[in-house]
Amino acid sequence: MTDTATPALRGQLGQVILATLASTTGFWAWMSIAPLQKTYATEMGLSEGQISLMLATPVLVGALGRVLVGALTDRLGGRRMFTLVLLGAMPAVLLVALAGSLKLFWLLIIAGFYLGVAGTIFAVGIPFSSAWYKPEQRGFANGIFGMGMIGTAVSAFLTPRLAQNIGYLNTHLVIAGVMVVMAAVVWFLMKESPAWQPNPQPVMGRVKDALRLPITWQMSFLYAVVFGGFVAFSTFLPKYLTTIYPQEVDQIGAGTRMASFVVAAVIARPIGGVLADKLGAKLIAAISLAAIAVLAWVVSLEPPEGIVTGAAFLGMAAALGAGQGAVFGWVPRLAPPDKVGSVSGVVAAAGGLGGYFPPLVMGATYSAATNSYALGLWLLVATAALAFVLALLLRGRQRTPAAPAPVAQTLP
C-alpha cells in the first residue's frame, strides 16, 4: 500500500490528527447505547439477557465489519471511507432515537445492528495513518490515531448528561449532527498520502489473501488480548468494582474509575507506538503482555480497595494501551505493503471480538459463594502469558529479500 521511496510527506501529523477526530466521532456514535442502558432497561422492562443482547450487538457487528472496511480502504482510500462510514452510520443514530422514543426493543436491536457500522471506522485509520509515515515511524502514527478510542469515554461522559439536560431525542440529533459535520470536514480537508496507491484487486479476494498470511492470525491473537482487554474492562469495570467492593465503591465512583481507566489507556497507546518505533514493537508488546499478566494476577487476589487496586487497574490500562500501540506499530512492519488495510481490518476485528467474550466469561465464572471473579481473572493471566510467549517467538520486522548474487562473467 505504501512506497517508502516517495517525496517528503508534508502535513502528515495534521492528517493523522484529523483521522483521530473522525475516529473519536465514530466511537462516540458506536457506544451511544451503553451509557443509557439503565434508561432502556427501565422504560422497556428489559431482562438481563435482553440488556446483554442490546449492548453486545453494536460491538459484535462493529468488530466483524472491520474486515470488509479495511479491505475497502486499500481500494478507495481513507478520505472516501471515513466519509462513507460517518455518513453511512448517521441514520443508525436516528433509528436508535426512534426506537427509544417508541420504547420498541426489537427496533432498538435492529438499530444497534446498524449502529455497528460506526465501529468499523477504526479499520479505516490504520492504513490511512500508516501511508503518511515511513515504516520506522508507523508506531507513532498508529498510536496517535488509536487515541480516537477516547470516543468511548466521550460517549460515557456526554451522552447521559446531554440526555438529562436537552432530552433523549435531542441528544441523538446532536450526535448525528456532529457526524455530518465531521464527514464534511474530512471530505474537504483530508487528503491521501502521496505514498498511497489504490489496490484494484477484488475486495473479498484481498480479505482471503490476508487470511492466508500467518502474520494476520498472529497479530489478531495479540490484539484480541490487548484491545479486547481494554474493551472488556471499559464495560465491565463498574460492575466488577460495585460487586467486589460494594461498601467502598458506589455507581458514581465506579463510573469515575472507568473513565480514568479509559484515559490511561488512551494516553499510553501513542507512547507504546513511539517506544515501538525506537526500541522495537516486539519488545514493547512483550513487556506490555507480561505486565497485563502480572497485574491481572494482583487483581485476582482481591486486595483491599484503595491504592493497590487503583494502581493495579491504572497500570493494567496503561499496559493494554501501550500494547495496542505496539501491536499496530508491528502490523505495517510485517504485512505486505499492499495488504496493510486488509490485514489491519482483520486484526481490528479480532480486537473487537476480544472485547465481546471476556464479560461473558467473567459472568459465567463468578462465584456467588465467595463473591469472587478470581477464576475469570486467572484465565486472563493464562491468556496474556500465552500471548507473551507468542510475541517472543515472532520476528520483529519483515525480512528483506536477499540481493541476488552477481553472475560470474566468462571470458570469451
Descriptive overview:
With 412 residues, the protein is mainly alpha-helical. The protein folds into two domains: 7-191 and 202-208, MFS general substrate transporter like domains (Growth Hormone, Chain: A, Up-down Bundle); 214-334 and 357-395, MFS general substrate transporter like domains (Growth Hormone, Chain: A, Up-down Bundle), CATH 1.20.1250.20. It is 76% helix and 0% strand. It has 17 helices and no strands. It has helices spanning 12-30, 37-44, 48-76, 78-102, 105-115, 122-131, 138-146, 151-166, 168-189, 203-212, 214-244, 251-279, 281-300, 307-334, 340-356, 358-365, 374-393. Helix 3 runs parallel beside helix 6 (122-131). The longest helix has 31 residues, at 214-244. The termini are far apart. The model is unreliable at 1-6 and 399-412 (pLDDT under 50).
What's the main sheet like? none
Mean pLDDT: 84
Number of domains as seen in the coordinates: 2
Please count the beta strands (DSSP E, at least 2 residues each).
Answer: 0
Oligomer: single chain
CATH structural fold name of the largest domain: Growth Hormone, Chain: A
Structural class by secondary-structure content:
mainly alpha
Shape: globular
Report how far the terminal alpha carbons are from each other.
45 Å
Low-confidence stretches: 1-6, 399-412
Helix content: over 70%
* Count of helix runs: 17
The value of Rg in angstroms is 22 Å
Q: Could you spell the SSE succession in H and E letters?
A: HHHHHHHHHHHHHHHHH
How does CATH name the architecture of the largest domain? Up-down Bundle
Strand portion: under 5%
CATH C-level class of the largest domain is Mainly Alpha
